[in-house]
What we know:
Blueprint: H1 9-18, E1 22-28, E2 39-45, H2 48-66, E3 72-74, E4 81-85, E5 89-95, H3 96-102, H4 104-107, E6 112-116
Amino acid sequence: MTETVTDILPSIIEGIRDRKGRKITTVDMSDIDTAAARRFVICEGTSTQHVAAVADSIREYLLEHIGVKPYNYDGYGNSTWIVIDYGDTLVHVFKRETRDLYALEELWSDAVITDYPDED
Length: 120
């Protein structure tokens, strides 16, 4: 039996944009053998409440539109960095200062990095 795999990236981006998440970046690490995941999706919110709202929107959007639940998620305690685990895709929702501090895009600079324009 052949299973159809749905690319969840468009739904993740829509979920982010639905709550006005900003500075969306994808980090494609599919050609890096030592990477923890095939892809990171990184975005940011303007406050801890906004970070939590964006993360909730992503989870709700994927469940409602394509029937996909995350394997796990963490970070709601302080909501400065919430990670949502979709297996081969990890979604990182940061508060801007926390994103600047950890600079995940720089850690994986040998990956293919794509920035998406903000919608205003």
